[in-house]
Structure formats: structure tokens, C-alpha cells
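Translate structure to sequence.
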């Protein structure tokens, strides 16, 4: 089979991309002379968020979109799911990518005010942060529309989904198996 890019797969590949970018910035932090320069700067903030936010949120969204049809019994809107992904990945990068440049320019983290030369990149990062935060409302819309109804989800909505959980209707009924199932 070939890979298809439904919403859960987009989030999974987005996770790999952003997490890898964070890993590359971690390699830079591992070089001692450079680490002395970027220690306690916005470079470390950017690195941390590329690894942590991607490592948690992107993977959680992949799992949520994958299991949403099984949990609710209805398919979510693929358009809304993809819109959520693309808005999130774009605004995430608009938020945190400029922080690398701020850190390399010497902007320290944990300060109440910053020098004027850092204004432009901070303004870009602020716009990105608001956009990233607002794009999470798209997920809320997707979940609400999915819970309220929509296209009925099949017991096995994903090609390649194997296991007992995919043999029962969506959503799974209470007392799913009256007798223990035979696992081969």
C-alpha cells in the first residue's frame, strides 16, 4: 500500500519534521563553543519548544484525530482537520523560528524588557503565537462538529487498522465483549 495523508498522518509527519528541526538545533547546543554563546538565550527557548511542543501537542493531535471516529461514532471534517494542521504548523514556525535568530543575536531569556534591535523578530513571534493559539480553536470546532453528528464512522475507518478495537462498532458499546475474544 501507499501512504495516504489524512489528518492523523499529517500530524504524525508534522511531528517528525518539527521534532527533527528541534533535534538539529540541539546538535548546535551540544557544540561547546556555540553553547557558551547561546546559553540562556532565546535560541534555547526556540530549541526547547521545537522539541517539547512538537513532542507533545503534535503527537496528541495525531492520536486525537485517529481515535475521534471511534470515540464519537462520527467522522470529523477532513477539511477542518487539515485546516487545523496547516494553520498550526505555519503559526508554530512563525512563532518559534525567529527565536533562533534572536538567540544568536544575544537576546537573553527571562527578561522584562528587551533592546530595540529585537523588536521586529519579537513582533513576528507574537503574531505567530496568537495565530497558533487561535488555530487551536479550529480543533475545538472539529471536535464539536464530530460529537454533534456528521458522517457515521465505520467500525474500521482507517485502512490498515488492525486489532480488536476495530472489530466493534463506533462508538464502542458498553460491555464490548460478553465473552473474552479469541486473539490469534
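Result:
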Amino acid at each position: 500500500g501507499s501512504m495516504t495523508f489524512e489528518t492523523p498522518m499529517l500530524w504524525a509527519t508534522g511531528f517528525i519534521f518539527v521534532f527533527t528541526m528541534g533535534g538539529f538545533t540541539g546538535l548546535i547546543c551540544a557544540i561547546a563553543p556555540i553553547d557558551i554563546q547561546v546559553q540562556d538565550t532565546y535560541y534555547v527557548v526556540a530549541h526547547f519548544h521545537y522539541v517539547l511542543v512538537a513532542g507533545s501537542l503534535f503527537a496528541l493531535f495525531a492520536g486525537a484525530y485517529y481515535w475521534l471516529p471511534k470515540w464519537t461514532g462520527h467522522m470529523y471534517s477532513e477539511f477542518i482537520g487539515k485546516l487545523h494542521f496547516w494553520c498550526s504548523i505555519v503559526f508554530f514556525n512563525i512563532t518559534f523560528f525567529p527565536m533562533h535568530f534572536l538567540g544568536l543575536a544575544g537576546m537573553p531569556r527571562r527578561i522584562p524588557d528587551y533592546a530595540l534591535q529585537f523588536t521586529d523578530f519579537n513582533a513576528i513571534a507574537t503574531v505567530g503565537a496568537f495565530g497558533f493559539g487561535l488555530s487551536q480553536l479550529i480543533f475545538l470546532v472539529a471536535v464539536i462538529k464530530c460529537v454533534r453528528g456528521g458522517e457515521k464512522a465505520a467500525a474500521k475507518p482507517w485502512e490498515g487498522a488492525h486489532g480488536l478495537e476495530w472489530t466493534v462498532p463506533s462508538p464502542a458499546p458498553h460491555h464490548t465483549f460478553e465473552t473474552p475474544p479469541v486473539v490469534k
